[in-house]
Design a protein that fits this description.
Oligomer: single chain
Number of strands: 0
Structural class: mainly alpha
Number of domains: 1
Helix content: over 70%
Strand content: under 5%
Order of helices and strands: HHHHHHHHHHHHH
């Protein structure tokens, strides 16, 4: 086999591994509130999330096309497979580190930062498609802010509507409703996050002249959907504990409000073909709901730790990818 084919195979394996890890790293966020309020048992939540993530991943490809062409131009990227492989190794490493410590870091930040870092190491800052790259960064920054504000508003509306209702009956009703919101949130997660790996594989195929357009091959879509579904089935208990209990004490009405908010923001981003961090959106919506419920009830220390991780993910993953590119370039 020639070097291009070997590198392409390694990228496909790496991208599917990234999607698999994303499944238990990020999908945990989608079901954390439903598990913490006992709306769903952990096993039930994971099976539901795996199925809905697969369905979501098979529905859209717009975000994948954005990843393929908006960070760097795959048609002009020299040594593209090595760049992409380095980015994948760096993103996977950072995901595993943050998963180990139970920190809900962003897989989206990690892979986008890694691609940028490896591309800069390969061809300088001119390798970046600045218009597309800045558009992606804007979506990553704006989406959690919108989620916080929307979470605050949605929960405030819930409080107003249900203030005179029996608390026990209201919580019981919302616990049932959370089954629907957990499914919806898992579906929207699949529509956005699974597509990132699809875009990466497509970049490699274009870079090595196996594809001439940015259209996502059906085998890429199916394999990424399966990888994310399998990853989801493993579960991410450390992340579930952080999101489901260490930000605030979540009750069914809080969880439902946060789930609806984050699902709407994520799906809105998918609709306009923009990648967002599902981790940031979900945790920000919980923070917004918590602030509307009782500001002092939010564990701001946990929130601060997550915020720091969010900020450092891009530069750290970019740096890791740049170092990895230099090492891989010696081999290939």
């Amino acid at each position: 086999m020639d070097t291009f084919l070997i590198l392409t195979i390694l990228v496909v394996i790496g991208a599917l591994a990234f999607d698999f890890i994303n499944g238990f790293h990020d999908t945990a966020n989608a079901i954390a509130t439903a598990v913490s309020t006992k709306a769903l048992k952990p096993r039930q939540a994971i099976i539901l999330a795996a199925a809905m993530n697969f369905l979501g991943a098979m529905t859209f490809t717009g975000v994948a096309k954005t990843i393929t062409k908006d960070i760097v131009d795959p048609f002009k990227l020299e040594n593209g497979s090595v760049v992409i492989l380095a980015a994948l190794i760096a993103a996977i490493a950072w995901n595993l580190i943050t998963w180990y410590y139970g920190i809900p870091s962003s897989s989206s930040h990690a892979i986008i930062g890694s691609i940028a870092g490896a591309a800069i190491a390969a061809a300088g800052f001119g390798a970046l498609n600045y218009q597309g790259f800045l558009k992606i960064i804007e979506s990553l920054i704006i989406s959690p802010v919108l989620a916080f504000i929307a979470g605050y508003i949605v929960y405030s509306i819930f409080k107003l509507i249900f203030k005179n209702y029996n608390l026990a009956k209201t919580n019981k009703g919302f616990r049932i409703f959370q089954i629907f919101t957990a499914a919806l949130q898992s579906y929207t997660h699949g529509t956005n996050d699974a597509q990132k790996a699809m875009g990466i594989i497509t970049m490699a195929l274009i870079s090595n002249n196996y594809l001439t357009t940015t259209d996502i091959p059906i085998w890429v879509q199916i394999s990424c959907a399966i990888a994310m579904g399998l990853g989801t089935s493993i579960g991410g208990w450390k992340i579930i504990k952080t999101v489901g209990g260490r930000i605030m004490k979540i009750r069914p009405v809080n969880g439902a409000a946060a789930d609806l908010t984050s699902a709407a923001i994520i799906f809105g981003a998918t609709y306009i073909h923009l990648p967002v961090s599902t981790t940031h959106v979900i945790t920000s919506s919980i923070l917004g709901v918590g602030s509307a419920h009782r500001v002092k009830g939010v564990k701001w220390g946990t929130a601060q730790r997550m915020l720091i991780t969010w900020f450092i993910t891009l530069p750290i993953s970019a740096s890791l990818a740049a170092i990895m590119y230099l090492l891989l370039n010696l081999i290939f």
